Amino acid sequence: MSSSSRVHHFKLVLLGDTAVGKSCLVVRFVRDEFFEFQEPTIGAAFLTQTVQLDDSTVKFEIWDTAGQERYRSLAPMYYRGAAAAIVVYDITNPDSFTGAKSWVKELQRRGDPNVVIALAGNKADLDSRRKVEFEEANAYAEENGILHLETSAKNANNVKSLFVEIAGKLPKNPPQQEREAFPLMPAQQESRSCC
After folding, report:
1. What is the pLDDT of residues 7-39, one digit of tens each?
2. d(C-alpha 15, C-alpha 86), whole Å
3. How far apart are CA 27 and CA 49, in angstroms?
4. Which helix (H) or strand (E) holds 100?
5. Where are the domains of the chain?
6. CA dihedral 154, 155, 158, 159 (to 10 degrees)
């Protein structure tokens, strides 16, 4: 099977404070829709979407987590085993950027050591109300070796690019040889001569 016809599955989680636009980003990416008044996520929502790269297809299994503080303790359950994480902040809310930094730190400390992290400065359509400068967030991203893009779920700016850039950074190893359904344990592999 050629690599272009192979589909690579990756778990991706969205993290960030409440009302930064995590669900809006996902809905824009998956369904190309935007709702001005998105209901807050309770617990987490699950969606899937594929991205076509030059040499392969990536299927994201997306967990959109709730941003409310009362759900924060559930987050490790969602980011455990995630190959990628998008940490979202609102460019008009400096507290959300502080919160994003805390999520990045938590992922670096407790997430998968190879997790691809992207920092998304959402609500870029509200540039006139900007409180978090692009340069400040970009410098932070560079210091931490993570991706950084400013997005707007409202006008779809950089939303697909965000997921495509993440997809490009994920490892696309060839599938491993299929193993026997019930591999023999070393003790079982020894000769079984009787007496």
Report:
1. 899 999 999 998 899 999 999 999 988 877 666
2. 6
3. 10
4. helix 94-110
5. 3-189
6. 50
Q: What is the pTM of this model?
A: 0.82
Is the alpha carbon torsion for 169, 174, 175, 179 positive or negative? negative
Find the helix or strand (DSSP H, E) in which 119 lies: strand 116-122
Q: Tokens in use for 65?
A: 């987590």
Please give the Cα distance from 41 to 75 (Å, whole number).
Answer: 13
Reading the block at residue 150, the tokens are 């400013």
18 closest CA partner among 70, 85, 80, 61: 70
The whole-angstrom separation of Cα 22 and Cα 20 is 6
Q: Diameter of the chain by CA atoms?
A: 86
pLDDT digits (tens, 9 = 90+) for 121-167: 999 999 999 999 999 999 999 999 999 999 999 999 999 999 999 99
Q: How far apart are CA 13 and CA 53, in angstroms?
A: 20
Per CATH, the architecture of 3-189 is what? 3-Layer(aba) Sandwich (3.40)
What angle in degrees, to the nearest 10, is found between the helix axes of 94-110 and 134-143? Answer: 10
- The SS3 assignment for 27 reads helix
> Which whole-number Å values give the CA distances from 77 to 8, 19, 63, 87, 156, in the listed order?
22, 21, 10, 16, 29
CB 119 within 8 A of CB 89: yes
Nearest-angstrom CA–CA distance, 151 and 149: 6
d(CA 118, CA 75): 17
